[in-house]
Structures are given as structure tokens and as C-alpha cells.
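**User:**
Make up any protein.

**Assistant:**
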Amino acid sequence: MNRQFRTILISAIASFAFFGSGLAAAAEDSVLEQDARAALKSLYDGSPGAKALGDKAKGILVFPIVHKAGFIVGGQTGDGVLMIHGKTVAHYNTSAISVGLQAGAQAFGYTLFFMSDKVLNDFRKSKNFQIGAGPNIVVIDAGAAKDINNLTVKSDVYATIFDPKGLMAGITLQGSKITKLGR
């Protein structure tokens, strides 16, 4: 192989690797956004109260699937999207570590409904948002959300947990750290 051909070949491979990784991230983001929209639609279809929250919310953070596993020490993680007026504006990761009597694995989804511009803007400006260390968050089961209406919405942030699967007792969001992804 001559030197010029090798240089062109190496440049082409490097370009493909660089731009190909961007295309892969874009494809992952597209799938994540589709999953988030499908999860939100499913939540709304099964819970008119969640739909009422969504209609009134200034922003909605959707984590369509969070994986949790543990044996004494456990962890959970998942990626999600922040939607404002139905448009995706940012991507986030949620993660938590727990220690205690636990064994098993499960998956679930959750949403955060930001009910005021102030709390939404504070969330967007924060580097590491932690559930339980900021604004008042009311966690409600997706089934219980059917009892929420415009007259009962008084909290800054509502969280709904939906679609739990697996064998592990309890789902908790307390202490979950939410970090904006750089993509």
C-alpha cells in the first residue's frame, strides 16, 4: 500500500468513527424520545389525572425505563427527556445508589411534572438535581393520579411512577440524582 492511500484510508476510518458515533447518539436519542412519548401516552391513556397534570405542567421530564437491581447494595439508572410544550429540549440521566435489605431486579418508568416556571427554570439551571433535596415533590402512583384534578394541584413538582416490572420490593425516587446529558 502506498503512503497516500494509507493516509486516505486512515482519515476515512477516523472520520467514520467520529461522525458515526454522532449518528449512533442521534439514533439513540431518537429512540429515547419515541419511548418517552409512548410512555407518556400510555400513562395519559390509563390516568386522566396524569393527563390533567401534563396539561397544566410547564415542563415534563419522562424516564420511560429505569433499571434497578441490588443485593444489599443496589443501584438504579435510566435516561429520559425533558419536554416543554410537547418538544424535547434536553436529555437527562437519573441514578441512585441504596444500601439495605434488598434483593432482586426491576424496571419502571417515571415522570416529573414541573408545575411552575420558577421550579422548571431552577431545575434546568441546576447541575445535579436531587429528589428530596429541592422543591416539594409529591410522588403519586399512576393509578392514584386518576383522582387528581385542576383543583387539587398545589405542589411544585409531581412525580408519577408507572409500569413496574420485576421482582424487587418497593420503588423509591428519594435520593435519585438527575443529571443533564451533554448531547
